[in-house]
Design goal:
two-stranded antiparallel sheet; about 260 residues; 6 helices; alpha/beta; eight-stranded mixed sheet
Amino acid sequence: MTGQHSAGSDENNGNGRNSAVHPTQAVVLAGGQGSRLRPYTDDRPKPMVEIPGTGTPIIGHQLAWLAAEGVTDAVVSCGHLAEVLQDWLAAAADQLPLRVTTVIEKEPLGRGGGLKFAAASLPRPDRPWYATNGDVWTRFSLREMAEFHQERGALATLALARPRIPWGAVETDEFGHVLDFIESPPSPYLINAGVYVFSAAFADLLPERGDHERATFPRLARERRLAGFPLPQGAYWRAIDTAKDLSEAAKELEASQAH
């Protein structure tokens, strides 16, 4: 089942040279149940949860960001309470900055299967595309990420974030003396930020069902065709998984607007 909601503006030329470097189409995975965000997700899918103080659901922020980065067409893969998301898109159609098509998974396909299912509805299957998880709220240059992807000749590139650890850390010396307490330090490890650039051929490598991180990505990593793009210094990124994430995102937004 599909639905389409068109923006009022004309499409930029998706067949020009830049579209080979900077994708003009994207997939948003918005089918998860968001059980850790209950009760917010009792009556809406996770991407329809609003960041307090914005009046806009997460999906609205994502679509605005994608459009600002040159995307003219987005395919939103729905599942849990899909009609709520479709109704919002239909009501907002005149204000949407890009064309949006929705597809509905009749049964959960996993993230890899969901990507493959949604990619089949992309308007330009012979062109590269972006993808993002529907619970990610972020801002960074997708165009720079696409250039990084092309320079490395990758089939897939994932954005890498270094989130802050939610606990305080303790620094000690070699003798076990406590030297300092560090509140919410950055993680020493990079993580998959849930934002991707894919070459056109990547869709054929995705599983019909299951997780691309367990099936497709390890294969590409062995073949040196998987790239990782570290988010630029100072770029905002947060995955909205829990009620605490919502409140933290609201605080961070308020702090950024105060400066």
